Amino acid sequence: MKTKTTTPVVVTQCCDCGLGCNTAGEWFMVKEQVWAEAWHDRIKPWHWLPGQTVLCIGCLEKRLGRTLCIDDFTDAMVNSPDKASGMSDRMRSRLTAVKSVRLDEPLKRKRGRPKGSKNKPKAAAASDISNGRRGPSPAHRNAGVGCRERP
Question: What residue numbers bound the domain in which 121 lies?
Answer without folding.
Answer: 9-135
